[in-house]
Amino acid sequence: MSAPSSERRLLRPRYIRFAADRLWVIDETQPVAVLLEPSSGQIDRIVSWPEIPSPSPALTIASHGDRVWLHYRGTDVLACVKVDGVHHAEYLEGTHLLTAGSSGAWCFRPTQTRDDVARTADEPPLPRPRPRPPLLLAHPDGGTSPINIDGVLVAADFDEQSVRLGVEHAPWSRIYRETPTPTGFVLQQSKSWIHLPLDAGTTRIELDDYPRSQADGAWHTSEYADITYNELHRRKRAIGDGVRWHWGTTDRHGGVLLVKAFRGGSSVPVREIELPEVRAYEGIAHGGQLWLLVRSADENSSTRHLVRLSIDTAESELDAAIDDLDITGYCRAVAPEPPDHASYVRYCVRRLDGRQFSKRMHHVRAEFIGDWPHGRLHISFTHDDYEGLTLVTRLNLYDEQGQRLEDITRYVPTELMEQADTHAYPNRSHAIGGVLYV
């Protein structure tokens, strides 16, 4: 447990996983998970891992059995966490976490590809450097194994049963092209998806060792950023105890969150549930039920809830708000205050105060309100189309650990201009005392 922060920190749920027969609700930036008993939804314990470095809050998570695997973007550290904390950690050798199964955590590093243009159609392919393993398996009880592959691994994806490896391999051919330059015969490799079971235990993969399907065209995976209902999207799907759940928003239902449950391979849902005025972060299936972490569809509301659904009823069985849980004592320690903090604040104010970012904005003022590291730079202004209101943008200069963020004076002027010109503000009804926070 780390030293407590001077400001109370409440849980900000962002990820959910099942491990060790508990629902893990993981914070969006802090190394903290709240473990819930799935039948009652009651808190069982709080687990933290502040010793794992995290230069970025971007986090990849996988779970299997009694373990949760964690990888923060920008690090080469893979942490295996159990209910009593960090069990072990591994060096990733330049790979990143994909998913996990009974064999351990599967980690992948794509091989960089470039055009191979030759003068003749029969010239052999240029050799591709392989300085580090493209696939790594981290074992449940510690240690890693590099996995060698017959071919060049250039893409990877996964589903509930397997890791899908995109491999370029022989036979090959060359096709002549005139544009773009250079002209010549361009290498065309054969492309395949190898379907590697999550429980596989191997140190070398030959092309015909596991089921293989042909891959046509450019490499792509099944992940997309949209939130609409689509049964092809893995991140809006969960499978548990023979029930397959899908969710997403749909215009046909007025923008509500639609959830469907199917048994086995049936295309006819056994249950359809509509959840109005919410959007889903993540979902996980367990024991014939679906847990969804949802937020309000109102962008100005930060409320987050856990919803438990069942095929037995069209109503949610449990709806719990857990974003009021104090996790201050489990957070990372705050860095020392930088000696140039006051000078940096003056610099930001000087660059932004009185500056008209858009012809629609007037009376622009910049002021730092609060104390390091939680104080924020407030930029207040009036807008031609918001008569009678003062609009205020609040900007963080530091992250939660007291580390200075990117210089806001480099990008905020453009953001404020675009926001003003497109009226990308909350509705006037959200104003309090003549002030609208944007």
From TrEMBL:
Highest taxon above the source species: Bacteria
Identification of the protein by name: Uncharacterized protein
Q: Which organism is it from?
A: Rhodococcoides yunnanense
Q: What is the lineage of its organism?
A: Bacteria, Bacillati, Actinomycetota, Actinomycetes, Mycobacteriales
